[in-house]
Amino acid sequence: MACRRKFGIPWPECNDGLSYDDVVRSSDSGLTLVEFYFTKYKSSAPLQGWLQRIKSGQITFDGRVVTDSSTVLRVGSKLVYHRLPWKEPDAPHMIEVLYEDDDMIALNKPSGLQVLPGGLFQQRTVLTQLQWEANLQKKPHPVPVHRLGRGTSGILLCAKTKLARTRLASYFADGTSHIGGKRDTNREIGKIAKIYRGLASGIVENDEVTINQPIGVVKYPGVAKGLYVASQSGKPALSVVGILERNVQENSTLVQVKIQSGRPHQIRIHLSFIGHPLLGDPLYGDGGQPKCLDCDSIDESFAEDGGYQRPTKPVPGDCGYNLHAHKLVLSHPLTNELIEITAPLPSVLQTPEEAKEVATMEQTA
Q: What are the protein's GO molecular function terms (predicted)?
């Protein structure tokens, strides 16, 4: 059923901090405390940062605070690193519900809000708001079945039941697995299709562009698991780009992009690959690669909490571009009914005709 309610609780100034539990394995026996943490969680903090965390009493060893970094570990001992509360970067907290039934819920995620915890955003996420909303209703909380970049707005699909989650997740996996090889790119595959709106830089000449470019991962500072880029050795990915409006004066092109499921940052990478990255994208330049190609150096200085300083180079979560998950068409995970969900367009991504229609509707409302 269609729905346009909103929910959201304002974020507290600081989050509650985090605790990371470990049990010493035989392979770690004999290591010192600092050797263990620096080896296992090297991406979290440099050596001096871990020394600071230990000296400040943030780690317990079998339930007791230990401040000696040379403490030798023994098999079976329990370690807990207590990450201190911190103020997370600003993020929206209100979320609109676009569709909801007993099995799933579709949200209109605002730009600037992260979907799942990661990096500096551990509390200010969509998942936290879903948990808080469910707690108020005394119900299990829905779970996102895919992701949108922090700077991307629009439809985020979440499952309310384990069965719906399994089937919806399979839709996304199936759609991606069928991409690649020689085939009719106009043929519909899978049980889900997503249509995005984006504002690309430059003037795209062809009215429709099919991009069949694999996406892989490369090492990149500030991104522990690596950065997704255009790569011939990567996994298949397919995007079909349609042109809605060319703005010669602003040197930009309003595009519609259709994908069956999607690799991480697929649209940003694919538009970049054809030489028309999203306007304002701080990370991707031409060729589906990061703008900075000399990204081998890592800043070993550490922040107040002992962790690495925020990367000086752009990272995937940085905002500044305009990309919106506008429409989602799928077979209902339980009834197989065809469902079409639409998220209202931001004004910057509307054609002149659409902007006039919205203005007229607002005047008559």
A: pseudouridine synthase activity; RNA binding
87 vs 93: CA distance, rounded Å: 15
CB count, 10 Å around CB of 102? 9
- The pTM of the full predicted model, rounded to 2 decimals, is 0.88
* CA 326 centroid distance within chain: 17
What the block records as the tokens of 219 is 């090492």
Q: How far apart are CA 327 and CA 323, in angstroms?
A: 12
Q: Could you write out the three-class secondary structure of 191-215?
A: CEEEEEEEEEECCCCCCEEEEECCE
- pLDDT digit string, tens, across residues 5-53: 999 999 999 999 999 999 999 999 999 999 999 999 887 888 999 999 9
The full length of the chain comes to 365
Helices 33-40 and 47-55: crossing angle, nearest 10°?
130
Nearest to 144 by CA among 180, 168, 112, 120: 168
Q: Work out the number of other CB atoms within 10 angstroms of the CB of residue 346.
A: 17
């955003």: which residue's tokens?
A: 121
